Each structure stands twice: as structure tokens, then as C-alpha cells.
Amino acid sequence: MLHAIGSGKELTKMQYYALVSDILEDEAVQRLQFFRHHRFTTRLQHSINVSYYNYLICRRFHWDAVSAARAGLLHDLYFYETDAYERKEMPGQKSHSAYHPEVALENAKMRFALNPRESDMITKHMWPMTKAMPKYKESYVIVIVDKYVAALEFCALGFRRMKRYVWKKSAASENS
What is the pTM of this model? Predict the structure, then answer.
């Protein structure tokens, strides 16, 4: 079953899935499930979350929802642990926030044909950390959605884990 955080809808049964299934079925994209992202989720799940909400917002405004969905899945297509990069960061080296969109774009271009809007969305999703401003309205959407989804993932999933921890502690103290 494929879901986006905060949505109870099964994404494989929606028009959305038909637009992105080739990306989701790609072996490199599937490898993202093995990388932790925003502490409580995987990079694949984060990308699905961003993709789906990008799609919904852009579709609502009659903008390029297809490019929004596809770029959302590819915006974090890099294969290294974020923490490891940040520990190696040296003076003059780009921060992870500025560097990974470039890596994601190169990885995406190797696997998929991208239109200019998708490329802009991938490279500018960390704006203003990336110096160049977004060129398209859909690029501004991904900037906002990426941050919103990260907050949801961190807070919602962290809250669930905390709730389970408290539940186990209270159950253990009742049994003692």
C-alpha cells in the first residue's frame, strides 16, 4: 500500500499513480527506502509525500501538476547519508542543503527525461539555500511543500513514537 503522510488514500488507485509509476518502479528510486530522512522517515517516503502534495496543490490551481508530481519524487534522489556529508563538510564546500539538489538533478537526468520545469523544481527546492531563485510557480510550491512535509514527518511520526514509548512505560509500571 502506498500512502502519503496525513492522507488515508491509497495512492496506487488514483490518477496520481499513473503519472509517476515509472519513477516509483525504478530500482534507483526504490533504493531511497534504505536512507533515513528527517529522522523518522525514509527518503523514499519523504519523496512520495512531497510528490503527492505538490501534485494536489498544482492540480488545484490548474498548474503543471504532472511535473510537480514527478519532480517531487526526484527532488532528493541522492545516495549518501546526510549526516555523513555534514560531518565531512570543509571550509568553502557547499552545505548539504545547497549541494544535494545538484546531485539529485544529475541522478534524475541519468534515469529520466526531464522538462525545464522539473529541472528547476529539483534544483531550487532548497531555495533560498540555493542562490538562484525559482523560475516557475510550481518551483515555489515545492519549496514550501518540502518544508511543510518535513515538519509533518518530524512532528507527526515523532509524536507517534513518543506516544508508544509513554504507553509502554505506563503499561510496564501498572504491571509492576
Answer: 0.82
